[in-house]
Structure of Transcription factor zinc-finger domain-containing protein:
Amino acid sequence: MPCYRCGARQTDPVRGVSPWKRGVRREAQVLVCPDCQREHDLDLDTCATCGSIALICRLGEVECRSCGSVRLARSRDSLISADSLVPAGPPGLAAEVEAALNRVLGRS
């Protein structure tokens, strides 16, 4: 999954904690690269209880990693229009992924 802001893709991680951060934007889990984390306005969803941006989205729920508050995720269709979705990634990414899967799975 690329950075939702700049489209940078993660490389193979080194040992230890990843410098990439997770967040929730418009009810969808996103990743934020180290360069974009320096920005002050990340436009991420915040916790209604404590105001933190340390949220994770899973199985139809949004959980705050700061205070532990959990709420049901709203339908993405009710939040955003199709033209404002999180970018799908850099051009050619789907072709690169398909080629890598073909190599790994031994497909011609």
Summary: Helices lie at 34-37, 76-79, 93-105. The chain is about 20% helix and 20% strand. The chain has one domain: 21-105.
